[in-house]
Amino acid sequence: MAITVHIPPPLRPYAEGTDKIAITPADAGTVGQALKVLVTKHPGLNDRMYTNGQLRPFVNVYLNNEDVRFLDGEFEAPIKDGDDVAIIPAVGGG
Amino acid sequence: MTASNETSSTPDLDRYSRQMRFFGIREAGQKKLSNARVLLCGVGALGTVLANTLARAGVGFIRLVDRDFVELSNLQRQVLFDEDDVRSNTPKAEAAAAKLRQINSQVTYEPIVAHIDRSNIEAMAADVDLIADGSDNFEIRYLINDVAVKQGKPWVHGGCIGSHGQTFTIVPGKTPCLRCVFEAAPGPGEAATCDSAGVLSPIISIIANFQATEALKLLSGAEDAINRELLYVDCWENTTRRVKIAPLLGKVDCPCCKHHRFEWLEGSMGVQTTSLCGRNAVQVVPAGKPNLDLPRLAESLSSYGKPQLTKFLLKVEIDGCQFTIFPDARAIIQGTNDEERALALYARYVGH
Predict the structure, then answer these.
(1) Considering only CA atoms, which of B44, B31, B51 is closest in space to residue B71?
(2) How close, in Å, is residue B22 to chain A by CA atoms?
């Protein structure tokens, strides 16, 4: 079992089409570190997810479907095997 | 704003017999639906599905607002329109109302062919019980959020692109609002639009019918049954996700629902337009001078025309208009004097 980081469809063009990556607790111990592994692996995501080092305000990150902004430690929240990290941006169309 | 004619005070309920047998609605809920009033913002893809379901369910009054006309490329997913509407160049609000009158004549429809903006949305929402999001852009959604919170009315958000979509329900004071969940709208060019990334009809139907169900719960007196999570569905990848947004209530230092600063209604957020006198052109200026990634925008628009990209600007011709777009996201759209059309073109192709 690993930690899965899900990449939403609108961001996949900046991640070589990848829909998710699997990382191990040895790679990342917190949500923030998991995101760092992701953007290191797919540098094109950096600009799409961050501005001035902050997550863009229309991009949310959820750990096991809970908003990371309101977890204890926020992006320092610890992660473990089996955890699910999802990046979900606002959707404009309709 | 008043209805063009009054809803029947005692509509024939027989046609709703199957719905009234459902334990969550019964006759009492149906009568509440018959007396309920809805503002539908946008009568395109989400909007036609919403209108279809709400009208068939017997919601008493539906105000349908859309500025556009029916085009051939709409028919793939905009379920109330047909080829006659395309040929006759009928406004969407009128075409939808005409079709809905054939579906359920007990309902009162008020079609309004207008661009929704901060000058008119408060009046449109003043006499309704609920606002349904049938729009296709962030500008209108954040405007709806402002007016809903200001007037203390529930609204049901939905958004779709490609094969995925998301929806959640906002009841001011009882759930987090749109700005609690997504602090701000993407800047111009920062998010894909259905015109750049495409959209499948089934995801529209799925999301809009989740929205319609939420509206039926709220309007029939079943608020306890509403969805309090962000629901995400991808119908191509067969995935669903339920994100827990309820815990955000009261925790977010939200400009809108906590501090009652209605920045889209006030015009300090969003996009402004100015007709450029004598030039048959409109300037579109987003608030805040965001940085726009011109090379990326040029790439996404390459299927529409031949974008000319320089260090200073991007030029491209789409829909008979010449777009000149600058790195601060300002655009001059030549070929129209109509500010609403220019704004719609900007939303569609640059995105905001």
Answers:
(1) B44
(2) 30
Output the pLDDT for position B1. Answer: 43
- Using left for φ > 0, alpha for ψ between -120 and 50, and beta otherwise, residue B162 falls in left
Beta bridge partners of B37: B61
Q: Between residues 225 and 264 of chain B, which touch chain A (CB distance below 8 Å)? A: 230, 232, 234, 237, 241-245, 247-248, 251
Residue B194 catalytic?
Answer: yes
> CA–CA separation, B80 vs B93, rounded Å?
10
In chain A, beta strands by DSSP E: 3-6, 20-23, 50-51, 54-55, 59-63, 66-67, 84-89
User: How confident is the model over B195-245, as pLDDT tens digits?
Assistant: 778 899 999 999 999 999 999 999 999 999 999 999 999 999 999 999 999
Place of tokens 């977890």: A71
* Cα–Cα separations (whole angstroms), residue B318 to B45, B192, B276, B313, B343: 22, 17, 19, 16, 14
| Dist. CA B173–CA B152, nearest whole Å | 8
Dihedral class, residue B130 (left if φ above 0, else alpha if ψ from -120 to 50, else beta): beta
Give alpha helix (H) positions in chain B.
17-21, 26-34, 45-57, 83-87, 92-103, 121-125, 138-151, 178-181, 194-197, 201-219, 263-266, 294-300, 339-349
Residue, of B125 and B291, whose pLDDT is higher:
B125
Q: What domains sit in chain A, N to C, each tagged with a CATH number?
A: 3-89 (3.10.20.30)
User: In chain B, what are the domains?
Assistant: 14-265 (3.40.50.720), 270-349 (3.30.310.10)
CA distance B95 to B91: 6
What are residue B114's phi and psi, to 5 degrees? Answer: -160, 155
CA distance B336 to chain A (A): 24
Six-digit token pair at B280?
């048959």
Q: What digits encode the pLDDT tens for the residues B166-200? A: 999 999 999 999 999 999 888 777 777 777 788 99
Complex confidence, ipTM: 0.94
Paired tokens of B264: 């889209």
Q: Tell me whether residues A56 and B190 touch, CB distance under 8 A.
A: yes
CA A70/CA A66 separation, integer angstroms: 8
